[in-house]
Amino acid sequence: MRDPATAKIEIRRPPPKRWMILQQTQYQSLQQVETPRQPLEQPAPQIPEEQISQSGEEELPSDLQPVFESIKQFVSELSVEETHALFRIMARLKGYGMLPKEYVAMQFVNLPLQTLTKYMERRRMPRTRKRVAGMKRRVILPTLKRDLQISTVILMDALERFARDYPRHRGRVEEILRALTEPREEEQLENEEI
Q: Are 19 and 110 in contact (CB under 8 A)?
C-alpha cells in the first residue's frame, strides 16, 4: 500500500494473533464435524494382470487386435507428408485451437506440450525417415491404440478426414472402418440370445 503523503510503500499484515485464531478455529471446526465418508464414485475396475503388458499398457481385446494390426500397417505405409497430415487431423479433432493446449497434449500418448506446440505452431515436425518412424512408433500408434480402446468415434473421424484428403489410402481406411463398424462376435451372440 502506498502512502500518498510520504510516497513510501508500506506493507501491512494482520497481527500474528489473528493468524493463530483462524488456524485454531479451522482446526476445531474440522474436529467437530466427524461424518462418515462415503465414496463419491465406484472404484475403478481392476484389470487382470495378464491383460497388462510389460510396458504397463493395457492389452487390446482379442476382437480389436486385427483392427489395430490394420492400423499399424496403414500408418507404416504413410509418407512423411501424410504422417504430418494425419497428426494435424488428430490434433484438431482432439480440440487443438478450441481447447487449452495442455488438454490436447494430454490426449496424446508420449507427447509433451512443448513438442505439440512445436509441431503445430512452428510447423517443425520431424523430416527424416528415421525421426518420422520414431514419431509414428512413440506418438501416433499409441495414441491411435488408445483411441481404438476409448474413443472410437474420434479415431473413425480422423481416418475419414484423412481418406478425404488423401484418396490413395481410401481402400485401406475403408477396410479399417468396416472392421470397426461390424458388430462384434460377443454382441451378435447377445442379440441372438434375446
A: no
